[in-house]
DNA sequence: TTGTAAGCGTTATCAT
DNA sequence: ATGATAACGCTTACAA
């Protein structure tokens, strides 16, 4: 069996209190005593039991990061930054993926999950704000929301301005002289906020440019995957009146769409300009490289982790809304201006 | 404050034992009693404290997955499958990235980390087997190794046959009539097993084909990133005698290499055929699509999780070595046979 | 500065 | 089938 605090105390002929002080507190221990206890710890190869410590202190030192899918590049980049940010606050990260499963999201949030060994939740939700309000109330687990814009100020959240980001992307296509601009990533269900907001930005940009929205140019995508982008773009290129640009709601959609355009016998950006959102590294090495709206995952990670740490320390503080910056990165996929 | 087991017992006028039985055991409880206790639980909105349960049972229900970088597509795909596999065994996954930091690897393995709230470790290591042997001994935390081939049978591990995988990739290039085959991803330090094994496979395939190894065609790469692949391929294409094929030790290297070949004014596969290892989804949508050796991450996840669960239940069982299957996927990047 | 002892919220071992 | 109670290993008043 592993040695316990008591074993060390017995071995060193001191009280548990003193050993505990040496192990964690370092307060009021004479140097001689410290060295003495340390020797016993060494000899018995003692390691403090984190579970016992947690039961006593009420802190696990772990926060949960909940995302739809960890293998989506945007989320894995976010996870990377989150793990780093958490480390600077002394936390570790447990990652959970909901896999687009609403039940799972709710279980995690309501604390119905049997093993909630963490102090707080960083949650990138799929479902609407309305449902969320009810959800988290029973458990009162510290919570920071990620990636959505509008939560009525009831929760801490770090978001990007989705409407504006979409608008900027479409405006970039307009600036390149494109006028027949398609969109991939819309979703009919109102409960998904991200597609709603990006659709809104798309429509705003076109409307402000005096261009009418054509429903046949707006394509749905269920999972923001390469395959979804491929299918949607294939359909667009089969249209009698093809688009001269495609705004994809995510870079992954855009990667699929680019390949579809080529497979249909057209080229990017000559025939069709393409722009995405997320600025994943993949798009910087693709051919052509992908123009995209960059979201600052490091910023999102740092600020949200800082919020969560603050809330864990003081559950009653007022919620804060933070908007992460975004910036358009123009690359080859929108490089050529359309001659009118 | 949250309600405890004792609160429920008091409220229901029964013993803690009975409440505990209702909550978890379900053994020997009359239906009437169950209903009665359940009502009290409902009324007090009682949720069992997982930390207390853990202290008592010695099980957290969490396993740690340790990888170099979570945002490398191969590892995030593995993480996705691991989270799913763990769920079928009743475990959750905490992800840690070592970020190529040997210190961090050692801390995790030796249990020097302060918050080891997990029952076992799934470890995808960078460092050599030799170091590992010493590392895990003091803590005896259940451990399953991933991705390496040769660990002397002292640990459970699920690996691919790296030598064979590399050999198959190079053989595929030979089959396409390529003879001047470069390699990207070698590493000088002997302690990194993966590059050593893949280098060995590369050399074996060439030697068997009667082709001499040319040192200038073997390029190092530190991080198996797109950028490293780009740089290495750029150097290769600047050679007086250019290669007609490149074997990249990872798909990410290959994605960078492909872009570099194009930027140097050549084309894939006409001038240079390219093959990678990992078979990440990105390579199926790139232009050209990437030929690659597919590693079965779902298989690796399921088998390793099964091993770990078994070892947690019985720490003394004999270690097992499992080789995960691999298979070459020929795609466009090696589509054209070289005319001699 | 160090020792004593009371919990933290469960589960498990005795009984009954 | 249920009840009392002792651990699990640690932190921290309270004393000394």
TrEMBL record, chains A, B:
Q: Which InterPro entries match?
A: HTH_LacI, LacI/GalR-like_sensor, Lambda_DNA-bd_dom_sf, Peripla_BP_I
Keyword line: DNA-binding, Transcription, Transcription regulation
**Domain HTH lacI-type residues, every copy:** 3-57
Q: What Pfam families has UniProt attached to this entry?
A: LacI (PF00356), Peripla_BP_3 (PF13377)
- Its Gene Ontology molecular function terms? DNA-binding transcription factor activity; transcription cis-regulatory region binding
Which protein is depicted? Transcriptional regulator, LacI family
Lineage at the top is: Bacteria, Bacillati, Actinomycetota, Actinomycetes, Micrococcales
